[in-house]
Amino acid sequence: MHLKNLTVLGFKSFADKTSLNFEPGITAIVGPNGCGKSNVADAIRWVLGEQSAKALRGGEMADVIFNGTDKRKAYGMAEVSLTLSDVDEEQLKAAGVDLSFSEITVTRRVLRDGGSEYYINKTQCRLRDIQQLFMGTGVGRASYSIMAQGNITQLLSSKPEDRRIVFEEAAGITKFKAQKREALRKLDHTDQNLLRVADLVGEVKRQIGSLQRQAGKAKRYKQVQTELQLLETQLARHEYDILQNEIQDRHSACEGLQQQYEESSQFVLKNEEEIRQLRSRLAELDAEISASQQKGMELKNQADRHEGRIQFNRERLVELEHQNERALSEISQSEGRKLEVEAELEALVHSLASADQGLQQKRDAVEEHLEIVRQVESSIQSRQEAFRQVQSESFAATQAVGKVRNEISALDFQSQSHAKRLDKLSSEKIQLEEERTSQRAKLDQFSDTVEADKKAAHDQRETVEQRQARLKVLQEEIQVAAEKLDTVLQSQAEKRSQLRVLKDLESSHEGFSEGAVAAMKEADTLMGSLADHLRVESKFVPAIESVLGDFLQVVLTESPEAAREILGLLRDKKAGSASVASVSMMQKVSACSFSHSPTTHDPAYSPYGLAALTVVECDPIVQPLLDCLLGSVYIVDDLESAASFWRESGRCVSFVTSQGETLSPCGVFTGGGALSDGKNLTTSILARKNKIVELEELVALVQVEVSEASRKKGQIASEISSIQAGLQEAQSELKAREVAIATSEGEYRALKTSSQVLEQKIDTVVYEIQSLSDQDKELTEKREHLKVQLNQIVEQEKTAQEKLNELNQELDHFRQERDRAQAASTESKVMLASEEQSVAAQKRQKSPLEQRNRELSQALEQRRAETASVMQKREQCESEIAESESSVERFSHERNIVSEQTAGLVAQKREQDGAIQQRDGILTEHRQRLNEVQNRKGVLEVELAKKLSKLENLCNRIEERYQIALDQVESENVPLNPLPEGEASTEAEPRPDIEIFDENTDWGSVRERVQALQKKMDSMGPVNLVAIEEYEETEERYQFLTQQYDDLIKAKDELMTVINRINTQTREMFIQTFNQIRENFQSMFTEIFDGGMADLKLHDDEDVLESGIDIVARPPGKKLQSISLLSGGEQTMTAVSLLFAIYQVRPSPFCVLDELDAPLDESNINRFIMILERFLDHSQFIIITHNKRTISIADILYGVTMQERGVSRIVSVKFNREENKMAGPESSGRLANSKATLQSSRVSDDGLDLESNRSAKAILKE
């Protein structure tokens, strides 16, 4: 795997899109503090999946988004893309990436609202996919591929358990631990499912016992519904035709009134237009009158304004005369004063001319002395410049001597280290070659095992697919069975709901009077009501309730005393009235005493129809009362028969029809419309009792249907369970084989990686031995060269010191001459200053006189100009007076003309007003006629709207109820065609024969039949056919859940097996890798510190997979109890030892080191670089550093600058590593200085500034 490119946009200080390309070798990133170079390491860590904002030096994840500067707005998102090439196919497969890609780009994006997005090759993915891509490679957010200065302390001083992640990544078991975590997550999910399924099994088991009811009215309901639809649509069509005719008649009447309305409207509009024109002319006259009056006022105002101007100019003439007299007087006084000042000024000019000649002579003497001082100063400066130059050369020579001596010491130290290292590498090479032979044999054995496992997994996968196809068919069948069970269960639930409601009504005595209800609640000794002891067939209920009426609410008691007590209680509480009957009293009363019919004692004898007593069953205790109430009552077919029997009976009995219509012995007929079924069940006491019995029978029938549906569903569920068990077994076997393959492949890859690492180690050792030999030769040559250079520099230092002594003597001589010349110059300056003060005093006297003379001249000019201006203003005033007098006369004449015009316009306005009033009267009459027509038209339109609304409601009612368009129904056949957009259909439903309707149809009978059918449907109550399916689904669901519970138990056992297998494999891999890292760490630490002791220890050898890891480090000559007591440099070198010990086992494809070398001194830097160069063939290194020595070994140099405050930019320079090695120590040092210059230079928008760029190029040419 090769890191190819990093692209950053809006991440921290990188506001603009910034791209960094990486090549094999070392890439250095440099820049001043605060420029944002460490943000490059943060960007790599973030794109690899870092989820901790604290690890990125922030408080929350939105802190990584560019937050703006003084000149830039904050961004709404941050994005980082990482491009890698040469990615292993197994890693691509783990992340779900197409294997045809030669390189991949991983992208992460975060929005300011907290949303995150992840992409692989511009395809959105999960964070988990990115983690799986890098798992086991040594690359990741918490792996050893990114090491910052702060991570050293964290690695060394963190808890032993927290250090494990680095060793796990090196061992390549992170992928297996991820699989283990996934298996544990599934195990936890399985446990939760077990609890959930157990609860569901218990709940469904309880439901099965309650789903035992059935429904039986669906067929009759549909037959009634079909007939009702037939009759109701034909009746609606008949009403539709009648409404259409009425609507047409009113349309015609409205059109006639509309024509009258339009004719009257045209006349009104014509007259309104004429009146509008007259009013317009009237408005014009008003405007003309107003304008004429306005013009008259303006003429008067202008005349008044000119008269005011005449008065103002006359007063102004008087004022100007006084002003002219004052100006002439001031001119005479100023001319006298001016002559006196000019005489004084002329005498002062003659005195100044003679003083200027002596002053010039003294100035020439001062200039001669100053010239001598300047010449001496020039000599001194030239000598001082030469002194500084020689002194700089001497200082440079002294520094060069120290530097060369330090380099010679460093070379001596390196030679000693190389000798020790060569001895160690020779023995290590022999050991590694023996280990390579052993690993090659293991690789051949693992390859054969993996191929055999893959073939077995392919066969098992085909078996799984076949069983999945059969399972899909069965699941569709069980879905149909479940729907049927839902239908039956719903019907059962509805019947039970109806039964529960009716029983609640019965228990609350719904339909009883308040007094009866109160009596039954208050008294404890009651025997219920009369209705509680009666049983009547449903078809006779209306007749019996009509006859008995309120007697059904009679409250029964044992004794008369109890009856009186109840009535007294109702009276005291004002709870209403009630009828109370004593059972003991009823037993003493003979039924015949209440009967006027000779047949009362034999109820079966019915000369006039069916005796009411024969259709009523009752308890013996209420038989006497019932005999009294129904003994002379007969049930007949209709009122016509009742009237006939009444005449024959001698008018001593009562008759009642089956609909509840009665004929009393007195000849009074009673009857009317029956209540709807819903109200009937609420208020009808006997009908409610019968309905309760009927519903209880229906509930039992529905329960049978539920059982049958559940049985069918259970059969399918049983087969599904069997298929699922086989499928689960096949999937488990397939999963086990896949886990075995993954484990074997993991072991194979680990062994292969270990073999590759071993080969790399051998190559590294061979290369290092050769490199050390070559370096020893170079060190010897460099040491001889430095000795020659040291002798030359010492000689240069001695020559420079002698020249400095000569220059000091010359400087002392010239300084003495400068002091003498400065003393003579000072004396001349004193004499010159005295003379200049005298001349200055005279010049100060001259200036006020000249100023006074100028002021007097200006005053004279002003006064003369003032007199001329006064004369000009006087002439102007006289001219304005004449003009204003002429204007006053003209404006007065024009005002008289305007007044005459205004009077004519007022007369015209009066004529227009009269014409408008006349036309308004005519227009009012026509408007009244127009309103009458409009009112009549409005009445017709209201009637038309009512008819249309009635027609629309009729159509909507039929369309909503039957989904039939009424205008498409033909009056002579059955309308069953649905609307185009509807879904209703009657083709599959049984219906009666089609009835033919014509003009002879009795629509009243049709309407009565419709009402009867509606009542019949209401009496049936709600119909539901899903109860059987609900029961079947519940039974099948119970079987299915039971099977699911067993499957979950089996899946839990299989997951535990997988977890145990992973634990075994990861334990072996971790122990092997840990021991290798431990050996490497011990040898690497000893090499870096030139002695000492280091070790890695497990806290708990028994729990290898979770045990913490302790780091022991003791530099030479120290005996420390804790590694936290090491210095900063020692901690860094200890971390470096551990890092490269891991790299010897599993090198990361690339490594980011963020200022890791900051605490190191020059000696440790050399050791660090020497070890770093060993791994250049196996890894890329991106180093963020300030150290010149580290910068000097870089192949590519990136400079990070912040020319614009808060915004980081990148500048790059590429170097040839081989040329750097051949350039020698001097050029290498200068190259490092050049890179340091790049680090601290200012960068323009296009790159480096010109001066530092030229410096870098010059070093490269050398």
Topology:
Elements: E1 2-9, E2 18-21, E3 26-30, H1 38-47, E4 77-85, H2 89-94, E5 103-111, E6 116-120, E7 123-125, H3 127-134, E8 146-148, H4 149-157, H5 164-171, H6 174-210, H7 218-507, H8 514-522, E9 534-536, H9 541-548, E10 555-557, H10 560-573, E11 580-582, H11 583-588, E12 610-611, E13 616-618, H12 623-630, E14 633-636, H13 639-648, E15 654-657, E16 662-663, E17 669-670, H14 677-683, H15 685-962, H16 1003-1020, H17 1027-1089, E18 1093-1098, E19 1109-1114, H18 1128-1145, E20 1150-1154, H19 1162-1174, E21 1180-1184, H20 1188-1192, E22 1196-1201, E23 1209-1214, H21 1217-1222, H22 1224-1240, E24 1243-1244, E25 1247-1248, H23 1250-1261
Parallel strand pairs: 3-21, 3-22, 8-20, 10-11, 14-15, 20-21
Antiparallel strand pairs: 1-2, 1-4, 4-5, 5-6, 6-7, 9-13, 12-14, 15-16, 16-17, 18-19, 22-23, 24-25
Give the CATH architecture of the domain at 1-145 and 1148-1215: 3-Layer(aba) Sandwich
**Tally of DSSP helical segments:** 23
The helicity comes to: 55-70%
Bulk shape: flat
Radius of gyration: 61 Å
CATH superfamily grouping of the domain at 1-145 and 1148-1215: P-loop containing nucleotide triphosphate hydrolases
| Spatial arrangement of strands, main beta sheet | 2-1-4-5-6-7
The low-pLDDT segments are: 211-216, 590-605, 972-994, 1218-1262
- SSE class: alpha/beta
